[in-house]
Amino acid sequence: MEVVIVPDGAELGKLVAAVIAGLVRRRPDATLGVATGSTPLPVYDVLGSMVAAGRLSMHGCRVFLLDEYIGLPAGHPQSYRAVVEREVVRRLDLPSSSVLGPDVSAPDLIAACADYERLIQRSGGIDLQLLGIGADGHIGFNEPCSSLGSRTRVKTLTPRTRADNARFFDDPADVPQHVITQGVATILEARHLVLLAVGAGKADAVANAVEGPLSSFVPASAIQLHPHATVVVDEAAAGGLQLADYFRSTYTAKPSWQSL
Ligand code: GLP
Fold first, then answer.
1. Which of 53, 88, 239, 250 is least enclosed by beta carbons within 10 angstroms?
2. From the candidates 87, 117, 143, 164, which is the catalytic residue?
3. What is the per-residue pLDDT across 215-240, written as a single tens digit (0 to 9) for each?
């Protein structure tokens, strides 16, 4: 695992956008796993500027949702499909058909989860998966005590996650209780994981994920199992890391030939 500590969200955006742009230039039909939430927005901003300036085309890429709410009316602005349409597809000038996600309106949700797993596999897997982290250590919507071997499935949100996500809804009671999320083991199959966090509110979750024991209680700690995981955090989110100085010096001394 590589941990990169940047001054702020803007620098995080530039760094991670450069990694994605590098991937897309090497592989124009790259498959990207996108995260919602506020943390990745600077990444989409920088990528959007590159696309607008004609320095990058993402037209051949496919975009996979990490998770989705169950029970929101079709087209609800806070459904993750709508968020990804707004924040990713429009800014990156992608065709809407390039966004793939679980079918949360299917009459058989268990079958819809299995279908989504197959869709990811048939697409050749995900090249780069962006991840945020919940204050309780969740990735996607894999709440604490999610099996580290879990696949895409229906989950129930914790009261804490519903409260954290209430800022996006008019009424906190509107935050759905149920979701479909890629499982922890599904996420671990992506070829490169890039976990992002900003702000002091994420410091404990980041420290537990990076330096704590591997535990389903902190689903993000599963990234410790991944051969290519990059954690990009701002100074505040790095506040709980015992090895912060080591991570800083490692990054400063990184050979120029070695990419993230
Ligand atoms: C939601 C999403 C996660 C995201 C988390 C953190 O729970 N399901 O994928 O990582 O929010 O969001 P933020 O980046 O806004 O803190």
1. 53
2. 143
3. 999 999 999 999 999 999 999 999 99
pTM for the whole structure: 0.96
- pLDDT bin (cut points 50, 70, 90) of residue 259 is confident
The Å distance, Cα 197 to ligand 1 centre, comes to: 9
For the Cβ of 196 lying below 6 angstroms from any atom of ligand 1, the answer is no
Q: What is the pLDDT of residues 60-80, one digit of tens each?
A: 999 999 999 999 998 899 999
Does residue 138 carry a catalytic annotation? yes
Pairing of strands 178-181, 99-100: unpaired
Phi-psi sector, 240: left (phi>0), alpha (psi -120 to 50), beta: alpha
Catalytic residue among 136, 164, 192, 234: 136
Question: How far is it, in rounded angstroms, from Cα 78 to Cα 228?
Answer: 31
Question: Would you call 143 a catalytic residue per the annotation?
Answer: yes
Q: What is the DSSP string of the chain?
A: -EEEEESSHHHHHHHHHHHHHHHHHH-TT-EEEE--SSTTHHHHHHHHHHHHTTS---TT-EEEESEEESSPPTT-TTSHHHHHIIIIITTTT--GGGEE---TT-S-HHHHHHHHHHHHHHTT--SEEEE---TTS-BTTB-TT--TT--SEEEEPPHHHHHHHGGGSSSGGGS-SEEEE--HHHHHTSSEEEEEE-SGGGHHHHHHHHHS--BTTBGGGGGGG-SSEEEEEETTTTTT-TTHHHHHHHHHT--TT---
Gap from CA of 133 to ligand 1 centroid (Å): 6
Q: Are strands 178-181 and 153-156 parallel, antiparallel or unpaired?
A: antiparallel
Place of tokens 């604490």: 144
